[in-house]
Amino acid sequence: MSLLKLIKQKLRDSKSCNSANLAKERLQIIVAHQRNLQRPGKIDLDDLQMKLVEVISSYLHIDKGLVNVELQRDADRSLLELNVTLPEQI
Amino acid sequence: MAKIIVVTSGKGGVGKTTTSAAFGTGLALKGYKTVIVDFDVGLRNLDLIMGCERRVVYDFVNVINGEARLSQALIKDKRVENLSILPASQTRDKDALTQEGVEKILEDLKQDFDYIICDSPAGIERGAFMAMYFADEAIVVTNPEVSSVRDSDRILGLLASKTKRVQEGLSPPKEHLVITRYSPKRVAAGDMISIETVQEILAISLLGVIPESQAVLRASNSGIPVVIDEKSDAGQAYMDTVLRFLGENIPYRFITEEKKGLIKRLFGSKSNTEAVLA
Ligand SMILES: Nc1ncnc2c1ncn2[C@@H]1O[C@H](COP(=O)(O)OP(=O)(O)O)[C@@H](O)[C@H]1O
Ligand SMILES: [Mg+2]
Predict the structure, then answer these.
(1) Ligand 1 pocket by Cβ (under 6 Å)
(2) Contact B19, B181 (CB under 8 A)
(3) Ligand 1: which of B14, B18, B224 to mutate, judged by most atoms within 8 Å of the beta carbon?
(4) Which residues are found with C-beta within 5 Å of the ion, ligand 2?
(5) How far apart are CA B231 and CA B236, in angstroms?
(6) CA distance A61 to chain B (A)
(7) What is the rounded CA–CA span in Å between residue B57 and residue B73?
(8) Burial zone of B105 (CB within 10 Å; 0-12 exposed, 13-18 middle, 19+ buried)
């Protein structure tokens, strides 16, 4: 085996170049995320937004297009963000 | 009781049709009356893999539309007894498969066959849904590769929620993992994810591992399912898969790198590295 070949092989064998490990780590994250979305009882944000608009409209005059609901998730917490742009004077 | 088995994957080109043809043929070789149904409307190719493309007169959709009887559309395999094929239609109409139509045909097939193998199209749309909806068991075909494993996981989610069994309050279809195009050499080099990793992520029971093999292209070139090529690694791996499915305890082959020693290299020994999965 030539020296160059030997070096190449060593490089390939070293953990840092192991693309299979990288694939495994990525898959673990992707699949966890996917299962979160698929879980029965997952939140239907469109439906939630519609109902929130309904409730808020019965108290305030709002532009329905200016209501925004977003759900952010990371490893240890979820944040439900509701943004309503109100008209100038209430 | 007849069993409906869907061969599915989400991703295209991973080996569903190859597996449907090999697995179905293997069951027939073992004496079970088996029919393989092509659900890939518009892109039928099971007939090509089985080598019966010139005998297709009527198809699945003709039967649903009442233009032909089921017995007219079924093609009896010329090589293997007990084996039939129901070809898909080449129509572009994706809605050609109605749920009632599919159910009726599957019910009729149940009268005459022990196993009904449904070769699913790729994707998670109507065709794939139709192929899996009535299944009693599922073979999930996965390549050791990120996008294939991801898609298989999605399919598992659908099997657990969108099938008739589940909607009727029964347990979901029994899921079996078949890993195809596996290359022990690349796994050893750290370039391919291992069987253990795929299993760990998908968390379903393993039924078979089919190596990346020249024999598969050879088989499809000649229109003979690879399982008939008894000397080939892929053919043997598929037969092992069938036997495991039938309850036999068969060790896994072709899953570790074959180290060619000088003697093997000179005399080309045929023996393959055998191993039992823990
Ligand atoms: N074990 C294997 N080794 C080598 N090539 C394979 C193997 N399994 C499948 N292939 C090839 O992969 C391609 C896609 O296979 P196919 O069964 O048509 O996939 P699908 O039905 O999932 O789209 C074909 O060209 C086939 O020959
Ligand atoms: Mg196919």
Answers:
(1) B 9, 12-18, 122, 180-181, 210, 212-213, 216-217, 220, 234
(2) no
(3) B18
(4) B 16-17
(5) 7
(6) 41
(7) 7
(8) buried
Read off the pLDDT of residues B31-51 as tens digits, 9 standing for 90 and up: 999 999 999 998 999 999 999
Query: Which chain B residues are Cβ-neighbours of A27 within 8 angstroms?
Result: 146, 149-150, 193, 197, 201
The residue with tokens 């196993």 is: B115
- Confidence category of residue B120, pLDDT binned at 50, 70, 90: very high
Separation CA A19–CA B189 (nearest Å): 9
Which residues of B fall within a CB distance of 8 Å from A19? 190-191
Q: Does position A11 have pLDDT exceeding 70, yes or no? A: no
Give per-residue burial for B125-157: e unless 16+ CB within 10 Å, then b.
Answer: ebbbbbbbbbbbbbbbbbbbbbebbbbbbbbbb
Q: Cα distance from A80 to chain B (closest Cα, Å)?
A: 25
Could you give the angle at the alpha carbon of B193 between the alpha carbons of B189 and B194, nearest 5°?
A: 90
Q: DSSP 3-state assignment of B36?
A: strand
Backbone angles phi, psi at B237, to 5 degrees: -65, -35
Which uninterrupted H or E stretch holds B43? Answer: none
> For B125-177, what is each residue's pLDDT tens digit?
889 999 999 999 999 999 999 999 999 999 999 999 999 999 999 999 999 99
